[in-house]
Amino acid sequence: MTVWPHLKRATPLVSISALVLDTETTGLNTQTDRIVQIGAVKVQDGKCDFENTFDLLVNPRSPIPAQSTAIHGITDAHVKSADDFKTAANKLDKFFKPPLIIGCSIGFDLAVLKAEHARSGDEWTPPPNLDIQLLAQLVAPQLPNRSLETLAAWLGVPTQDRHNALADAIMTAKVFQSLVPKLAEKSIFTYATAKRASNRITQSTQAQGGWHDIHDETALNVRQVNEYARIDSFPYRHTVGEIMNSPPVIVKPSKTLSAVMTQLTSENISSVFVAPEKQDGPHGIFTERDLLRALAKSGPGALGEKVDLHCTRPLMGVGASDYVYKANSRMATDNVRHLAVFDADGSVAGAITTRDLLKQRSQDASVLGENIERAQTAEELATIWPELAEIARGLVFEQVDARNIAAIISHELRALTRRACELAQAEMVKGGKGNAPEPWTMMVLGSGGRGESLLAMDQDNAIILEKGEPGGPQDKWFEEMGTRATMILNQAGVPLCTGNIMASNPDWRMNKKLWRENIEHWITRSNPQDIMNSDIFFDAASVCGDETLLAEIEHDALIAASKSRNFIKLLSMNAAKFPSILRWFGKFKTDNGRIELKRAGLMPVFSTARVLAIKHRIAANSTPGRLNAVKEKEPDQSHTLENLKESHRIFLGLILKQQLRDLDAGIYLSNSIAPSNLSGFELEELRWALNEVQAIPDVLGGAIAFS
To answer: Which fold has domain 363-527+534-543?
Structure first.
């Protein structure tokens, strides 16, 4: 094993791939003693394969001491006809070449492996690794010791055939699986955070015993930054609506293939949409390939047949507001060359083809959205998170606008939430609870609803149901479904909301009537908690179920809020309250070398945009969209609003870059940044943006006066 597959440091532990390894040796001297048995268990996407394991005796080419045989039971006779180490290593390499090795006291195993490779004349580099003893110390420092027996007993893992390499590898794998949810409770979700936390634990005994240094291999298997430029950023910069062919070419179902062929040729197009036979029926699509198939099947006589007999229904398509990578992945996954493009109301707005996308092909990351839709478990959903981080990194390298990157992250967060709801519903049906008893919708709130999420995301979600009283049978069904969905999201790498703003909480799961009453109370009472609740709600986006439920409430809430002068005044005062982190001569006020840029910069901007949108009854959700719309309502503030919009871009970009640095370092993601990491140009941009934020009280003065 000399070349290890790349390990994404953001990979969640719940979906990690690894080889759980154990060795038995002739003794404890890592330089001179030899391996006599190798046992291994494959972990693929978080799942242990106990049916397909690796168990091999190794001939050490030297006598096995009696004291060692007394421990593991392996004698010279057992290994007399066994493979030598080089052959055994090749077999292990073919069994599974992992990006990560997991073990118990893994420093010992790595040291003897390194020595054995050296004897065989093979080059060897240490792989990324995790030690269950160190992971256990992070969550249970009170344990008397961290032997494999102690860890197994603590976690309820059966102990058998101790000091047999395969049996110990199986126990280690089971202990690791049991540790993963306990680590998550300590906010240790990914390989990077687990490794960073493990590195803090001193292991001087291992170092003195000649064990391999397992503390810091952060430089290993980390791609050079220029590799990330391989991502074609076009699909992540532009929406389908920008490049689609519009207006759509629609023909009557009675039109003959001969007439359609003439139209395809004369208009130089490769497909047409076929109108439905009945008024509310689905449209169809007829392509050049459909024409060739019809001619191959029926000959020239097919030209007199109706196009309706040869078109495909229903249409496969994407939304006009979807990014181009969504169309790319849909075509690649379903092996089609043409897609319909739908408006928000579901009507056909245009067409997009492989020809349109030929120069905008993205790499493997383009299938991200399809992977979400096809995921069947929380573990499969968890594999999306590191891919999303990789895309974000590549787009930052390509200097894509941070607002576009945030929109992509938000799009996938909403897709994850939708899929979590679908999986939760499937679990309910499988458990005999039936389908949803009432029309409903799941909302994503806050930054996810605004389309401005970055990588430090958590859950802000809520449910509206048509009917059903709190604690009643309908509510109980949605309580269980909402709880299942939130736990699936948590396992998939979207942590639970610390403020409990989730569909599992009855305060955020109500029928339409109660939602209306609550919003009315928020607007009329307007205490600090009401202000926070209303802020979150006015950024909501429906992601699953009947979207009209939110649309109706949101429309009425916007009108009611715009009429409440006191409510707008309180929102304005709240938005205008933010800490100043700029000191004399452009220096920053830091806390442990960092500044909380969300509170000091980002939040004032998006809160101001929300206040002004409510004042003017602007339905847009995103901060740039709101500020653009307000400029038309308040042209005298156009310059200041444009500067706030630019500040918003700068804040998002600086936070995102810091999150990517922290992700690799295993630091818990937040919205704080370290000014010491910034270039001179970035520091100047930050100072400029923070100065522009100081104008917010004046910008909101009109809203306060309006009140």
So the answer is: Beta Polymerase; domain 2 (3.30.460)
Q: What secondary structure does DSSP assign to 370-406, as a single string?
A: HHHHH--SHHHHHTHHHHHHHHHHHHHHTT--HHHHH
SS3 state of residue 68? helix
For residue 492 the two structure tokens come to: 């998939």
Q: Which two tokens stand for residue 380?
A: 């499969």
The rounded percent of the chain whose pLDDT value lies above 70 is: 92
Helices (H), 244-315: 257-267, 288-298
H-type helices in 140-214, by residue range?
Answer: 148-155, 165-185, 191-199, 204-208
Neighbours of 570 (CB within 10 A): 21
Q: Nearest-CA neighbor of 666 among 181, 130, 139, 206?
A: 130
Which is nearest to 173 in space by CA: 70, 350, 20? 20
Please give the span between the terminal C-alpha atoms of the chain, in angstroms, as a whole number.
71
Statement: residue 178 has pLDDT above 90: yes
Work out the number of other CB atoms within 10 angstroms of the CB of residue 657. Answer: 18
Contact between 108 and 206 (Cβ < 8 Å): yes
Return contacts of 160-165, CB within 8 angstroms, 24+ apart: 163/24, 163/71, 163/72, 163/73, 164/24, 164/37, 164/39, 164/72, 164/73, 165/22, 165/23, 165/24, 165/37, 165/38, 165/39, 165/55, 165/72
What is the spatial distance between Cα 706 and Cα 699, in angstroms, rounded to a whole number? 12
- What CATH class does 13-222 carry? alpha beta
Contacts of 262 (CB under 8 A, 6+ apart): none
DSSP H helices, 492-547, are: 512-525, 528-537
At residue 207, does pLDDT exceed 70? no
Q: Give residue 4's pLDDT.
A: 65
b/e map 348-365, b = 16+ CB within 10 Å: bbbbbbbebbeebebeeb
How would residue 209 be classed by pLDDT, with cut points 50, 70 and 90? low
> Alpha-carbon distance 366 to 344, whole Å?
23
Residue 53: per-residue pLDDT:
95
Per residue in 379-392, pLDDT (tens digit) is: 888 888 888 888 88
Look up the pTM and report it. 0.73
pLDDT at 223: 38
User: Homologous superfamily of 238-361 in CATH?
Assistant: CBS-domain (3.10.580.10)
Contact 214, 223 (CB under 8 A): no
Question: Strand, coil or helix: what is 265?
Answer: helix
